[in-house]
Amino acid sequence: METQRAALSVEQAATFLGYTQNYLYKLIHEKKIPHFKPAGLRGRVFFKQTDLENFIFRNRQGTDYETKRGA
Fold it and tell me: N or C: which end of the chain has fewer CB within 10 A?
């Protein structure tokens, strides 16, 4: 069973990803990173750590040996 994790703030998410907060806000604005904007919390944005992990581990590039082995 997966343990519930607290939502990450923009500051925490930026630290986790190694991005600046400004760059993270740019990704949010361009809808390039999954995030949550709860109703009633104007201007607040939150992230799930699992969504951030999936974001940074997308588009995996294979190695030469993997390509040769698959051929």
Answer: N
For the chain, give the number of residues.
71
Spacing of C-alpha 13 from chain mean position: 7
pTM: 0.76
Supply the mean pLDDT for the chain.
Answer: 90
Phi, psi angles (nearest 5°) of residue 69: -65, -35
Average pLDDT for 28-38: 96
Q: Is the dihedral of CA 34, 39, 45, 47 positive or negative?
A: negative
Count how many Cα atoms sit within 13 Å of the Cα of residue 4 in the half-sphere of its side chain.
Answer: 2
Domain ranges of the chain: 10-60
Q: How far is CA 61 from CA 16, 23, 27, in A?
A: 22, 23, 22
